[in-house]
């Protein structure tokens, strides 16, 4: 099922089910195995199609997807078919898909990168910038070229500088739980009932707003650590909770007299601090309903109830 | 807007331990709850506002023993960025079940971090008990120093306890002197970020508590989440709290509702004012 069948190219003869979140208590035996088959029938009709597009990054975001552990198999079994992935799927060209998770920034000197990111935009309904490089440039912002074996590769931009992006998942590496939450919400948005669509829209709205802001040519949302200064402290909004300091992966933020002190030499521009700040965005409807939402996500990820 | 948030039960309560009550702020709810939860294995440790390197300057601390929790009791009326050590509590201290105490804004930060845990890999799922405290506003350390030293005329080194109540700011010294100033004197020292906060009674804590609504030495307690309800019931059953119905005490929930309404309507006005502060432009609103 799901991932395994993708890896081994197995073909399952199974009636098409229209109820994906149903519990899969006992895995049904594979009816027939045809190794020569190239095209897999989708075992569950209303799964979404998902691709992982790799640009200039360190593959850490891909590792983060795998770090959902068993959750990855649940996602692939019940909610999403992986149709494109550098490490997991033997597909050479970017196919049509519902959601593209893009990892890494675009190297302007690499023609293939530019072609691929444009193809991704054309062929994916929803483009998600997965991780700091893709969303904000992250460490690739500091590249100056001159490295083996492509010394001319020196300028890198977040994907939103070349294409419109729908959702940002900031962080270096992005948190597996956020990827899981976004995946479940994307599924509900595309395949759910009205109430589920409403919830998913409310949940994804701030991540979409971050992407919308980043997609503007004149956007100033690239500084990250500076975003905390410019958009929170300078705006008289900081109340000293310390979330930014906790979320910084490189310990660039310390709390001095109750306010963040940002070491800009350390900041890698991953966007974690600003997006986790409760004063960057906060919805009482979504965050106030944390018990139900976390419960729903847990239920979606454990359809067997264990 | 719901002024008091969602809750399952609301009571007036205080700790049954005289040791805790001796120098807790009011009913010793947070201190007692964490010590109980620690001893029962409900939490492995708690993030509290521990003693800092300057007098009355709190520092977020991961307390793993009742002694450490006792050392952190009482209110300091300035900022302790408790969320700052949440990753440390899991990664460095290795806690699987974390307790955390915080103001309403910190509870908001916590719940946002649970739903959007950016940069906190497998940290926020370890939160086992979140205690919220009522909060009208907070002060920076320098502001509090100004209030206590300049206005109350008390040296921070000789300060025994500060309190806000009955429309006044109170400073008690180690030698028994009491100094008080009207609260309106303190308003200009408030932290600006507090003026957009739309929560008074920590709507997002598992359990939230504060002195308002209950008699001196007691605290008002809202039990909000299913998790909070389970823990609270166990604690009351174990006899660590003395509990009274909230409608049997004075001044009761009416006062809590009044203050919550005051804070929220005032701050909603401030948000509207901020939106139109300039000419055809304004300041950011974090809630949209």
Automatic annotation (TrEMBL), chain A:
Claim: Transport is one of the keywords in the record: no
InterPro entries assigned to the protein according to its UniProt record, in alphabetical order: 4Fe4S_Fe-S-bd (IPR017896), 4Fe4S_Fe_S_CS (IPR017900), Coenz_F420_hydrogenase_gsu (IPR017681), Hydrogenase_assoc-protein (IPR051349), NADH_UbQ_OxRdtase-like_20kDa (IPR006137), NiFe_Hase_small_N_sf (IPR037024)
Record keywords: Oxidoreductase
The keyword Hydrolase is assigned to this record: no
A UniProt-annotated Pfam family: Fer4_10
Domain 4Fe-4S ferredoxin-type residue range list: 229-258, 259-287
Ranges where the record places region Disordered: 14-43
SUPFAM superfamilies: HydA/Nqo6-like (SSF56770)
Enzyme class: oxidoreductase
UniProt EC number: 1.12.98.1
Transmembrane feature ranges: none
A GO term, aspect molecular function: flavin adenine dinucleotide binding
Family: Belongs to the FrhG family.
Name this protein carries in UniProt: Coenzyme F420 hydrogenase subunit gamma
UniProtKB/TrEMBL annotation, chain B:
Cleaved signal peptide residues: none
Domain Coenzyme F420 hydrogenase/dehydrogenase beta subunit N-terminal residue range list: 10-87
UniProt KW Nucleotidyltransferase keyword: no
Domain of life the protein comes from: Archaea
EC number: 1.12.98.1
Gene3D superfamilies, alphabetized: 3.10.450.750
The protein's enzyme class: oxidoreductase
Keyword set, alphabetical order: Iron, Iron-sulfur, Metal-binding, Oxidoreductase
Names of required cofactors: FAD
Keyword Kinase: no
InterPro entries named among the record's database cross-references: Co_F420_Hydgase/DH_bsu_N (IPR007516), FRHB/FDHB/HCAR-like (IPR045220), FrhB_archaea (IPR017679), FrhB_FdhB_C (IPR007525)
GO molecular function, one term: coenzyme F420 hydrogenase activity
Domain Coenzyme F420 hydrogenase/dehydrogenase beta subunit C-terminal residues, every copy: 96-248
PANTHER family linked to this entry: 7-HYDROXYMETHYL CHLOROPHYLL A REDUCTASE, CHLOROPLASTIC, FORMATE DEHYDROGENASE SUBUNIT BETA
Name of the protein this chain belongs to: Coenzyme F420 hydrogenase subunit beta
């Amino acid at each position: 099922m799901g991932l395994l069948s993708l890896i081994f190219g197995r073909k399952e003869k199974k009636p098409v089910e229209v109820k994906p979140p149903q519990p899969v208590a006992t895995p049904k035996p594979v009816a027939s195995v045809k190794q020569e088959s190239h095209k897999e029938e989708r075992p569950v009709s209303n799964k979404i199609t998902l691709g992982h597009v790799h640009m200039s990054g360190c593959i850490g975001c891909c590792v983060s997807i795998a770090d959902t552990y068993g959750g990855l198999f649940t996602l692939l079994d019940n909610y999403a078919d992986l149709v494109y992935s550098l490490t997991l799927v033997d597909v050479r060209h970017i196919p049509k898909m519902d959601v593209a998770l893009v990892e890494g920034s675009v190297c302007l000197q690499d023609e293939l990168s530019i072609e691929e990111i444009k193809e991704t935009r054309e062929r994916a309904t929803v483009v998600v910038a997965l991780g700091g490089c893709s969303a904000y440039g992250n460490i690739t912002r500091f590249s100056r070229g001159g490295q083996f074996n492509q010394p001319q590769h020196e300028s890198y931009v977040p994907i939103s500088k070349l294409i419109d992006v729908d959702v940002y998942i900031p962080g270096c590496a992005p948190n597996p739980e956020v990827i899981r939450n976004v995946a479940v919400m994307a599924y509900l948005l595309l395949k759910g009932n009205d109430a589920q669509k409403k919830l998913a829209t409310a949940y994804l709205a701030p991540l979409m707003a971050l992407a919308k802001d980043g997609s503007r040519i004149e956007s100033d949302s690239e500084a990250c650590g500076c975003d905390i200064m410019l958009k929170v402290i300078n705006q008289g909004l900081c109340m000293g909770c310390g979330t930014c300091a906790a979320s910084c992966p490189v310990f660039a933020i310390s709390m001095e007299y109750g306010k963040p002190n940002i070491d800009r030499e350390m900041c890698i521009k991953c966007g974690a601090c600003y997006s986790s700040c409760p004063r960057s965005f906060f919805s009482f409807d979504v965050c106030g309903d944390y018990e139900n939402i976390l419960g729903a996500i847990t239920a979606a990820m454990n359809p067997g109830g264990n | 807007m719901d002024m008091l948030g969602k809750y399952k039960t609301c009571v007036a309560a205080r700790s049954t331990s005289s040791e805790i009550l001796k120098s807790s702020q009011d009913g010793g709810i947070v201190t007692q709850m964490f010590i109980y939860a620690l001893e029962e294995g409900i939490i492995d440790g708690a993030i509290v506002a521990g003693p800092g390197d300057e007098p009355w300057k709190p520092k977020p601390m991961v307390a793993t023993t009742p002694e450490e929790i006792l050392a952190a009791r009482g209110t300091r009326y300035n900022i302790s960025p408790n969320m700052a050590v949440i990753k440390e509590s899991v990664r460095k201290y290795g806690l699987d079940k974390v307790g955390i105490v915080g103001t309403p804004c910190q509870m908001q930060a916590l719940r946002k971090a649970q739903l959007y845990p950016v940069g906190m890999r497998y940290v926020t799922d370890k939160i086992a008990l979140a205690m919220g405290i009522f909060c009208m506003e907070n002060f920076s350390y320098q502001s509090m120093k100004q209030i206590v030293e300049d206005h109350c005329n008390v040296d921070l080194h000789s300060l025994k306890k500060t309190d806000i109540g009955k429309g006044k700011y109170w400073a008690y010294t180690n030698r028994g002197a009491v100094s008080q100033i009207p609260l309106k004197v303190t308003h200009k020292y408030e932290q600006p970020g507090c003026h957009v906060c739309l929560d008074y009674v920590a709507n997002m804590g598992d359990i939230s508590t504060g002195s308002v609504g209950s008699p001196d030495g007691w605290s008002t307690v809202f039990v909000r989440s299913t998790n909070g309800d389970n823990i609270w019931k166990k604690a009351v059953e174990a006899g660590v709290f003395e509990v009274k119905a909230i409608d049997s005490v004075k001044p009761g929930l009416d006062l809590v509702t009044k203050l919550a309404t005051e804070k929220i309507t005032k701050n909603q006005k401030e948000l509207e004012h901020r939106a139109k502060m300039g000419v055809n432009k304004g300041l950011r609103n974090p809630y949209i």
